[in-house]
Amino acid sequence: MSIEVNNETTHQLDEAEFAELARYVFDAMHIHPLTELSVVFVDPDTISELHEQWMDIPGPTDVLSFPMDELRPGTTERPTEQGILGDIVICPEVAVDQAAQAGHSPIEEMLLLATHGILHLLGYDHAEPEEEREMFSLQRHLLLTFLAGRQ
Fold this sequence. Notes:
- With about 150 residues, the chain is an alpha/beta fold.
- The protein has helices spanning about 15-30, 45-55, 90-100, 105-120, 130-150, and strands at about 1-5, 35-40, 65, 85-90.
- The chain has one domain: Collagenase (Catalytic Domain) (3-Layer(aba) Sandwich), CATH 3.40.390.
- Strand 1 (about 1-5), helix 1 (about 15-30) and strand 2 (about 35-40) form a beta-alpha-beta unit.
- InterPro entries: MetalPrtase_cat_dom_sf_prd, YbeY, YbeY_CS.
């Protein structure tokens, strides 16, 4: 599995922790072990440019996902094919503000955003209420079991 995590900001974070989270989600979702993923942490100006360019929405956002090979979750008997899952771009400054509003730590918010981004790359969405319930429930389960396993 090739998980690349790059921090292009001055915000301090443990890149290895995000790679571990991605591996955990990949295992839970039966993603081929050689699947590639990139997670990049950027400043508000960079994510604002991407947000406007790709979503036609001005201003910064918390996370953007850019799928490549349109991989979908596998099963125990049949993991996904090997491929390039895509790229996730996270803005720590936006995450810090959201964490304060939600009442948890910035690192928990960024781990949540990384999980959210991976699920988007796997085809999950939250445009409709039923899709939102499914995606957010899975996102919560994956993050909480990852965090519980680390203690």
